[in-house]
Amino acid sequence: MLKRILILIEDLKVVNPLFGSLSTEFEVIFSSGNKNTFVVLDKFRPNAVVIAFSDFQTAFDCCFALRLNPDTTNVPTVIVSENGVTDEQIKKSYCNHFFIIPLDFQRFKKTLYQVCADDPYYDY
Q: Is residue 55 part of a domain?
């Protein structure tokens, strides 16, 4: 069974081709800001969530909201952002991993495998 990755992205029209190539190794679903994230999480039950926003503060807020919800507090999160941030900001976001665009795709993919293997949150 393929591990499930939910990618929260600002605009579905600008999906990064690198994310699209993940679909050969993971079951991937994309969701933009116009959908209720928690409904998508409940239906798809991902093993990890990738939060891909150009603005780190938006990604931070999204990750923090996932941590505050008792149903999603343990879902592993990976933030991908164009903005460089400090280690302190990353720590406060409660994300499991952080990547800056442009991605080192092999490292990113390896991290997703590790996150899914280490914390099979929705496996049953």
A: yes
